[in-house]
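Give me structure tokens for this 368-residue protein.
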Amino acid sequence: MSELYAARRTRLRDRVAGAGSAGALISRPANVRYLTGCAPPGAALLLGPADDVLLCGSPLSGDPSEGRPAEDVRVLVLPTRGGDPVVAGADMAEKAGAELLAVEEHHLTVTRHRALSQVAPRLRLTDLACAVEAQRLVKDDDEIACLRIAAEIADQALGELLESILVGRTERHLALELERRLVDHGADGPAFPTSVATGPNAGRPGHLPTDRRVEEGDFLSVGLGANYRGYRCEIGRTFVIGTTPSDWQIELYDLVFAAQRAGREALAPGVECREVDRVTRHVLDAAGYGERLGPWTGHGVGLEIDEDPQLSPAAMGKLDACVPVTVEPGVHIPGRGGVRIDDTLVVRPEADGGPELLTITTKELLAL
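Here you go.
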């Protein structure tokens, strides 16, 4: 794995050198982990012409969720407790003779940016912009393997929950059980706060679990994801509790399923990101539910649960092969209920079988 991280840093180093900078200071946690394999809280990576240093405010904890640093990255723990690794990195670069240093301005606060200028007044700062995020967009085989395992873990946790008795249990209890099962099956933790919405609560997009108890005839909408070695996937499913679904539930579910299928089938290298949103949204628009869909149909996943590309009406750019995305349309009717179906997929060319579905829990409308 050290060779993999070294290759990533070499690509970034070449880009930085091409822009005239002697090095770069990486502070966004997901970017630090992408380049080193490790991201302790507050850590920063000083990427130099020859030496790469991971600066940490405290000793590495060994927690698997932080990852492990690549062998060829030097780890430097600041001698002063509470010190800022980013500021220390700028100071180190100036003392090493650097004149120009690229920084992630989109991640630095104004206060932190000023501190860099104060500690290293002779060092000129230039914006690295989203160079690392752009490099992260297309995933390599190791990253996709981690996402596959994360998806398997999420599928397992959800599948086991569906086999248990649900009536009478609270949303909060079900969410906590799902997150425990994720860890039991090997996840570092949940990829994001687990959502469980029942009955009228399913009519609220982004609902967080409450003490409402599951009742017969409810829609049960679940959204969860696993974090495995830093890589995050997500899955969302909707079910009916206890009885045969009513006509309105079947109609709404079939509509969202058709929209989600249209979005999944549109995924291919070279397709505009907004086109995936358009075909998904069109199905709901035609049925009079277009305004119920949120501002996007899906988004990229990886070291963060919400990263580029965005699948939205205003999205720019086209999809590439080996880019993992979600397709997650939902229709939420306040006070009544709602349906959301969410999958994580990897964009693949048709010659390779088309989009690779990572989350495989059934999308049939089950009565549990």
